[in-house]
């Protein structure tokens, strides 16, 4: 279901799809940037990029194929949750007493965790907003 502009949840002026695009671009740029700045030769430094690519692709598909928007956006949220899970590995580093021993890796985990939490919060608020709108429309 594609909502009109006035009936969409917005965060910082962005609707859910545009927020998803920003999240995807952030993850992609972050992964590429950390890989470049740290001069890493490890493929694991690209994990944020690997999570951001499907977020970006499915977000754009949501825009151009509105009949599949619900499916695509649920897939995108799954990658947001994966970002949280991947970033939560930072806590293991701190528990073992090695927090920020590998500065770039732990900074990347922190970025994935925080951005994933914020993104999933936005998505939950959007889904709640849509549910409330549907409830209002059926009255």
What does this structure look like?
- The chain is mainly alpha-helical.
- It has one domain (14-138).
- Helix content is 73%, strand content 0%.
- Helix 1 (16-37) runs antiparallel to helix 2 and helix 2 (47-64) runs antiparallel to helix 3 (69-87).
- The radius of gyration is 17 Å and the shape is elongated.
Beta strand count? 0
N-C termini distance: 19 Å
Compute the gyration radius: what is it? 17 Å
Quickly count the helices: 5
The amount of beta strand, in percent, is: under 5%
Q: Pairing-aware structural class of the strands and helices?
A: mainly alpha
What is the succession of H and E elements? Answer: HHHHH
- Domain count: the total is 1
Uncertain stretches = 1-5
Q: Looking at the structure, what is the overall shape? A: elongated
Estimate percent helicity: over 70%
Q: Mean pLDDT score, rounded?
A: 88
State the major sheet. none
List keywords for this structure.
5 helices; 0% strand; 139 residues; elongated; disordered N terminus; mainly alpha
Short description:
By secondary structure, this protein is mainly alpha-helical. Helices cover 73% and strands 0% of the residues.
Q: What is this structure's SSE topology?
A:
Layout: H1 16-37, H2 47-64, H3 69-87, H4 89-95, H5 103-138
Helix pairs in contact: 1-2, 1-5, 2-3, 3-5
């Amino acid at each position: 279901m594609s909502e009109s502009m006035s009936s969409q949840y917005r965060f910082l002026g962005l609707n859910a799809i545009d927020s998803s695009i920003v999240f995807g671009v952030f993850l992609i740029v972050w992964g590429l940037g950390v890989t470049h700045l740290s001069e890493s030769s490890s493929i694991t430094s690209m994990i944020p990029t690997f999570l951001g690519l499907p977020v970006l692709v499915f977000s754009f598909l949501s825009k151009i194929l509105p009949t599949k928007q619900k499916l695509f956006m649920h897939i995108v949220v799954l990658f947001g949750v994966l970002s949280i899970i991947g970033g939560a590995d930072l806590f293991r580093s701190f528990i073992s007493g090695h927090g920020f021993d590998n500065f770039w890796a732990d900074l990347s985990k922190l970025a994935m965790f925080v951005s994933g939490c914020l993104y999933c919060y936005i998505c939950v608020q959007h889904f709640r907003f849509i549910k409330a709108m549907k409830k209002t429309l059926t009255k």
